[in-house]
Amino acid sequence: MQNDHVGQIYELLDKAAQVIADGLQLSYIEGLAEAGEMYFLEKTEQLPVQEKHAEQLQNLLEKADFRTYEHEWVRKAFQLAILKGLKDKSHPNRQMTPDTIGLFISYLMNKFTGGQKGLTLLDPACGTGNLLLTAANQLSDKMAKSFGIEIDDVLLKIAYAQANLQEKEMELFCQDSLEPLFIDPVDTVICDLPVGYYPNDEGAAAYELKADEGHSFAHHLFIEQSVKHTKPGGYLFFMIPNHLFDSAQSDKLKQFFAEKVHINALLQLPASMFKDEAQAKSILILQKKGETAKPPKQTLLASLPSFANKQAMRDMMAKLDQWFQNEK
Ligand code: SAM
């Protein structure tokens, strides 16, 4: 039943994205961003398209009823359309975070934040908003407000359309997240880190984790920036490259961790989830040091099984539950 709804919403998004892309000579992904905004505004006047295209869009608008759709149907429909749109321009750092991972991270966030309510959440590389909205939808009873930052204006526009259509209070900023941020420290950070070199050496100079020579690693600077913008005792959930701790610049990072955070968990995602093993990732969970934050007796280290292997996944959940019982 749910799949029917998702399929119908996907069709609305997909058709509108195609009409807008054809009408305005845009890429499909740009068309999708405009389509999302159109369904939110419930009008077509903002789109300078020819009359025949405006009529097609008006017909689609009449069929749509986003106010009645469940937020997760809308997010999943966007996810399908984004997958289609990002196929032609594949670049690992622009890829959306799939909800298989987002749902697992949301489960972990729920466990780590326990009975806390009214939490603020930041994703400093929010892309299409898929990861941020997966968490915001799953934890809607404990998340008060979210913040997303993204350098790519098209991806951010998709995040903005999604936040509006999924009725989430979200402040979004189109900027380089490694420049100064104008947000108060948050309770929780979630981020699928962009991996690679940061080209702006002058900007990197402000960071403890800058490289001694040459370009710094953007993913290291993102971690430092995220810790800076987290409240003492707040949790950070990162998707990191598996090689994070074995790179040329990792000594400084280890030192930074020892001073600023408690490493709570490092969970390696199954390699089968990634097209290329070199791009395989882990989930790293940190807690910023603070009066009430205690280091875990034992860091949770595990290699996660394939999410499709139900029995192995149940065993892993039991292991996680056991760790929580001992630690939290
Ligand atoms: N979680 C996102 C989603 O579900 O769509 C995908 C995150 S993707 C792995 C990393 C994102 O970081 C990309 O969208 C990229 O454009 C963005 N990015 C890279 N460098 C950035 C910077 N300096 N400031 C802000 N965003 C940046």
Bound molecules: S-adenosylmethionine
Question: Whole-number average pLDDT?
Answer: 95
The class by helix and strand makeup works out as: alpha/beta
Q: What is the CATH top level name of the largest domain? A: Alpha Beta
Shape: globular
What characterizes the major β-sheet? 8 strands, mixed
**What topology, given as strand order, has the largest sheet?**
3-2-1-4-7-9-8-10
Whole-Å distance between the termini?
38 Å
Number of domains: 2
CATH architecture of the largest domain: 3-Layer(aba) Sandwich
CATH homology group of the largest domain:
Vaccinia Virus protein VP39
What is the number of strand segments?
A: 10
User: Number of helical runs?
Assistant: 11
Unreliable runs, pLDDT <50, ≥5 residues? none
Domain YtxK-like N-terminal helical: 8-86
Domain DNA methylase adenine-specific: 97-299
Pfam family, one: YtxK_like
InterPro entries: DNA_methylase_A-5 (IPR003356), DNA_Protect_Modify (IPR052933), S-AdoMet-dep_Ade-MeTrfase_prd (IPR016843), SAM-dependent_MTases_sf (IPR029063), YtxK-like_N (IPR048375)
Structure description:
- GO terms for molecular function: DNA binding; N-methyltransferase activity.
- Residues 97-299 form the DNA methylase adenine-specific domain.
- By secondary structure, the protein is α/β, with parallel strands linked by helices.
- It folds into two domains: 2-86, DNA polymerase, domain 1; 99-327, 3-Layer(aba) Sandwich (Rossmann fold), CATH 3.40.50.150.
- The protein contains eleven helices and ten strands.
- The chain has helices at 2-24, 28-41, 51-63, 71-87, 99-113, 130-138, 153-165, 201-204, 218-228, 250-260, 310-327; strands at 119-123, 143-150, 170-174, 186-192, 197-198, 216-217, 230-241, 261-268, 281-288, 300-303.
- The strands form two sheets. The chain has an eight-stranded mixed sheet, with helices on both faces. A two-stranded antiparallel ribbon has the order 5-6.
- The relative contact order is 0.10.
- The site of S-adenosylmethionine has 22 residues, from helix 6 and strand 2.
